[in-house]
Amino acid sequence: MNIRNVANLFVLLFLIWLLLTGTFELTSLVLGVTIAGLFALNFGKNSSVFGKFRLTPKVFVYSLIYLFVIAWEIVKSNIDVALRVINPKLPINPGIVKIKTRLKSPMGRMILANSITLTPGTLTIDIKDDELYIHWIDVKTLDAEKASQEILGKFEKLLEVIYG
Amino acid sequence: MVNTILIMAGVLMALGILLALFRFILGPDVTDRAIAFDVMTVSSISVIALIAYFAGRVIYLDVALVYGLLSFLSVVVIGRYIERGL
Amino acid sequence: MEIRETVGAAVTLLGSVFIFLGGLGIVRMPDLFNRIQAGTKASTLGTILSLLGLAIMNEAWIWKLLVIIFFVLITNPISSNVISRAAHFRGTRMTNKTVADLLSDKNKKISEE
Fold first, then answer.
1. What is the pLDDT of residue C51?
2. How many CA atoms within 13 Å lie on the side-chain side of C11?
């Protein structure tokens, strides 16, 4: 039983409850605490995913920067893929490449994989330990080192600070 | 002015959903159909939000949220089933 | 007042353009992985932009719309990842333009050993 894990999950669930109900009435708050507490106790004790996260000011600032970086990447690459779709010749050069990540924590790896999937042009297919298999719509290199630099260079440094 | 722009947006969304429906009917494989279904439901979320704006009712946004969550669950279940059976 | 509503409507229109392009991409692309690339991501951005446009127009709904955007942003990459992994496991045929498939190479090597 990991008390920190349960506490983090409880805070997250209770915040979502507040956003969904949108009121601060007493009955709603009591119900929210009860439901969030039950779910956190039930699902938090067996997993260790939420326990690693610690909210220091540095982590908060880096998370905000990460949010902006990923939003910009999503917009940029969406325009790129949209131009490929409109083009009558359909200029694609797809393939599945392998890249390696330096991140150790499971949560960091999960967020990295989801970020790669969210930016169009790259799609995470499988993770085996520190190797990620990526479907790339425009393969520039098959070398693992160069492909890693090309695909996750911007995300990895920030996530390394956030999840250590 | 605003309503004209929003109606244009709604027509474009409906066209996108129709194209995805075309792939859903055509799709040579079950995975193609699953991904077309995913695109259709995600696009429908914004159509429902647009309807909520025209009707002026917040409760329709909850419908959109639950709809999105259910479609996510069904797509994950289909994927798991294809990969290793139930 | 009028200007803010017009800006919100314009953002919604931009989002609907991306939704339309997502539908076009899923019809035009030659194989499943490229369909996922063109279809699901474009429709994700389209949905986020059109919900943001509605949030600009109607500030009372902003929190609920942000919750929906958050859920779309979290759930959509997971569902496309699950489908693509299942398809690769199943051996879905890839288009002739494909350059390399390092994941199949690795699996083949393991099964030969």
1. 92
2. 17
Q: How far apart, in whole angstroms, are the C-alpha atoms of residue C97 and residue C92?
A: 15
Interface with chain A: mutation pick from C17, C103, C109, highest number of A CBs within 10 Å: C103
Q: Domain residue spans in chain C?
A: 2-112
CA distance A107 to A50: 8
CA distance B34 to B27: 9
Residue B64 one-letter amino acid? A
CA angle, corner C45, sides to B12 and A64, nearest 5?
150
- Chain C residues touching A130 at Cβ < 8 A: none
- The vertex-B81 CA angle with B75 and B86, nearest 5°, equals 125
Q: How far apart are CA C20 and CA A157, in angstroms?
A: 35
pLDDT, averaged across chain A? 81
pLDDT digits (tens, 9 = 90+) for C92-103: 777 766 666 666
Neighbours of C99 (CB within 10 A): 13
pLDDT 10s digits, A106-164: 777 888 888 888 887 788 888 887 788 888 887 777 777 777 777 777 777 777 777 75
Q: Check: CB of residue A36 under 8 Å from CB of residue A17.
A: yes
Is the minimum CB–CB distance between C16 and chain A shorter than 8 Å? Answer: no
A22 vs C25, C63, C95: nearest CB: C63
ipTM of the predicted structure? 0.88
pLDDT at B17 over 80: yes
Spatial distance between the Cα atoms of B66 and B19, rounded to a whole number of angstroms: 24
